[in-house]
Design brief:
With 330 residues, this protein is of the alpha/beta class. The chain folds into two domains: 72-149 and 280-327, D-Maltodextrin-Binding Protein, domain 2, CATH 3.40.190.10; 150-271, Periplasmic binding protein-like II (D-Maltodextrin-Binding Protein, domain 2, 3-Layer(aba) Sandwich), CATH 3.40.190. The chain contains twelve helices and ten strands. The strands form two sheets. Strands 1, 2, 3, 4, 6, 7, 8 and 10 form an eight-stranded mixed β-sheet that branches. A two-stranded parallel ribbon has the order 5-9. The longest helix has 32 residues, at 35-66.
Length: 330
């Protein structure tokens, strides 16, 4: 080929390459392309496909890890004994579902059940069955979700020197039959009862399983359903006695937990049936509940959260021995 023809061919080829590159930069596409631009386009397409695949895999991985995201709002209230667990679960669940806002309050089991039955909140937390706090029709409108077990422990001031009481002594103390610690093996110190209101599910549970159904004497001047306030009162008064959920005693040595009939209030003793003052923790919804409520309750009852549940002093229902379960059947 002559030199002029070679120059002309080179010029045509170069123009084709420039055109192809220009179309790619502008996002254009064509049914044909020059041989010179084919390799570049293939590499670009391969990289884009790889990037899209990686993005798709990441999204798929994220979805499989966290499940479908939950959005909207969720409100829960009631049991002070269950409050720390629900607050903790809410924090974890909102981290996984950033477009969900959960509000959790206490107020006592009776109040939580009333509010969920009235439709004022999505979940009513309770230490007792709804039938024990609501009339039959209201209770029937609710669905019970037994999320875990809770152990209740009598607590006294550390300086009192008491760490074990018999059931009879405990009943005598809380019914005010005995008013001085010297009558149950302690110092000459007046007994100060820190009691809970009648709406309290913790009170109902303690009455049934610790006091053999006896009604505790009410001390209106020191009545609270705030377990933090109760613990502080016991800590600051040598003669004080009250009771709290085991969850409030995790990493807490400000008060002394009291054994009953020589059996310490521990998860192990609850599981094996030796310690009797425990109950199921309930989360009630109106009917089947909202989408948000169902997702949150499923999360709390799932394997992923069970380890955290025990760390906080709550019991996993599936770990209860047959002996323990039978002892609480009605």
């Amino acid at each position: 080929m002559k030199k002029s023809n070679l120059q002309k061919a080179a010029t045509i080829a170069l123009a084709a390459v420039v055109a192809a590159v220009g179309m790619t930069a502008c996002g254009g596409s064509g049914s044909s392309s020059s041989a010179a631009s084919g390799s570049s386009e293939a590499s670009s397409t391969e990289a884009a496909s790889s990037s899209e695949a990686s993005s798709s895999e990441a999204s798929s991985s994220e979805a499989s890890t966290s499940g479908e995201k939950v959005e909207g709002t969720l409100t829960a209230a009631g049991s002070s004994a269950l409050l720390p667990l629900v607050q903790s679960a809410a924090d974890f669940f909102m981290q996984e579902n950033p477009d969900l806002a959960i509000t959790v309050n206490g107020g006592g089991s009776g109040e939580g059940l009333k509010q969920v039955a009235d439709g004022a909140i999505d979940i009513g937390n309770s230490d007792v069955f709804a039938e024990e706090k609501l009339d039959a029709d209201a209770a029937k409108s609710l669905t019970d979700h037994e999320v875990c077990t809770i152990t209740m422990a009598p607590v006294v001031n550390k300086d009192l020197g008491i760490d074990n009481l018999t059931t009879e002594q405990l009943v005598d103390i809380f019914t005010a039959k005995v008013t001085n610690w010297k009558d149950v093996g302690g110092p000459d110190e007046k007994i100060m009862l820190v009691t809970r209101p009648s709406s309290s599910g913790t009170r109902a549970l303690f009455k049934e399983w610790a006091l053999n159904g006896e009604e505790e004497s009410s001390n209106k001047t020191l009545e609270t359903d705030d377990s933090g306030t109760l613990l502080q009162t016991v800590q600051q008064n040598k003669g004080a006695i009250g009771y709290v959920a085991l969850s409030y005693l995790v990493d807490n040595d400000d008060v002394t937990p009291v054994s009953i009939d020589g059996v310490a209030p521990t998860l192990e003793n609850t599981y094996n049936g030796k310690y009797k003052v425990w109950g199921y923790e309930h989360m009630y919804t109106k009917g089947e509940g909202t989408e948000q409520a169902k997702a949150f309750i499923d999360y709390m009852m799932g394997d992923k959260f069970s380890e955290q549940l025990e760390k906080m002093g709550y019991g996993v229902s599936s770990k209860m021995s047959e002996e323990a379960v039978k002892s609480h059947e009605k």
